[in-house]
Hints:
This protein is mainly alpha-helical. It is built from seven helices and no strands.
Amino acid sequence: MQDIERQAQKKGVKLERLGRCQFCGSHTEHGVFECFEIFNFMASGAVGLSQFIYADAHCLQHSEVHGTWNNNFHLTRMYLTLEKKINWAYSKTSHLSSTLDKYKSSHAEALIPALPRLERDQTTITDLKGLKRSEFDTALLRWAHDVYESYAHYHPIAKAVGDLYIQNFEK
């Protein structure tokens, strides 16, 4: 994962070290830094498909500290896993990246921007904190679907890239 301070700096965003997370609104005392600490600490609890939708939901809520085409990648992967029910694996990631690279070379206008701050769904990483396995899995899936739906305006882009991926790699 890239250094969030360096990515924010590239985008001219000042990261807050106190209070709630400035991007997702999670209930933290130390802002986005604590939000990422919780995310990283809890990452081991997400296994299988959960590990991917876990990362996707958090990344889409924190676009300002990720790469330019981050939203396209994560929203497309959510489309593939949540809507198309593709059982995701790390080995598929490079294929999705290359599909997105080809797509963006002829569709530069298809860049999915960050949604306005605090409009990336109300559920956040702190809502998963302390949950038992079955509760965690249910809450994670709800969070992923809610974040995915908050980007509904951009689903046609994710679908276009995702369908190209399916056409080329899910035969």
